[in-house]
Amino acid sequence: MTTLFVSHPACLLHDTGYGHPERADRLRAIDDALAAPAFKALKREQAPRAELTAIERLHPQAYVEMIRASIPARDHKMLDMDTVVSPGSWEAALRATGASIHAVDQIMAGKADNAFCAVRPPGHHAEPSRAMGFCLFNSIAIAALHARAAHGAKRVAVIDFDVHHGNGTQAAFWSDRDLFYGSTHQMPLFPGTGALDETGVGNIFNAPLKPGDDGDDFRAAYENRILPALDAFAPDFLLVSAGFDAHVRDPLANLRLVEADFAWITGKLVEAAAKHCGGKLVSTLEGGYDLEALANSTAVHVETLMGAAS
Length: 310
Ligand SMILES: [Zn+2]
Known about the structure:
By secondary structure, the protein is of the alpha/beta class. 39% of the residues lie in helices and 15% in strands. It has nine helices and ten strands. The strands form two sheets. An eight-stranded parallel β-sheet has the order 2-1-5-10-9-6-7-8, with helices on both faces. Zinc ion binds at residues 162-164, 243, 245, 286-287. Zinc ion (ZN) binds next to loops.
């Protein structure tokens, strides 16, 4: 058994324009890091396109069609202040969402233990009817709904350690007791949601961190709030919104995590998955904008997943 690595070259063709932090070089940096001999055992697969029926479990058809219609024939189009589409964005978005769905399918079929999806655009800010924060389709939420609809999963959890709150995932899960969302994030920071008292129907667990907080604060938030709640929820599939922008080097936020903190949380999530759901875990890339920090943090994240799978 093994760790699956899912990506697709089309994800490089989502062009956000000069100077945009969410850029194709992020995936190139990850590819370079994972070319090291330590990653030889990864099972590498290309992401299929997500079926529109899978996307439309979360996003209304009118929204999906609006995104498709917004794709320009050339150059860029701004969907909001920082969410950009280019001619390659539709295909990239389908592959990015298709990656998580494919990873769920492969794990449910017993062909891998766990998986990491290196894709873009990211997804956790996309609300059912609103693109925002560099995100078009909310891949992780769509994967959760897919695990239920296609594989009969009853209780699906998403843990989100991106430095930004996953407002889209929270909105998608808000009133569904069989879906769990747990997030650490810096507050105040974009998108402004993620307060402690945003609890849905008792299924949302936010643990906001202050600017300047470090790995000790991050670990305490998981130990004291999110991991006990996850344990009580007892998921039968665990999904991870893996953003690496809480790293001290990241230009978009002010937390002070280092690689060892990402290895730590990955180990904890692997442990929770082993305890509750036979290790079934799919992690997908969200943010992370300093290329060196992103590459190194992704490497320790994937290494820890591989350690669990071997
Ligand atoms: Zn982020």
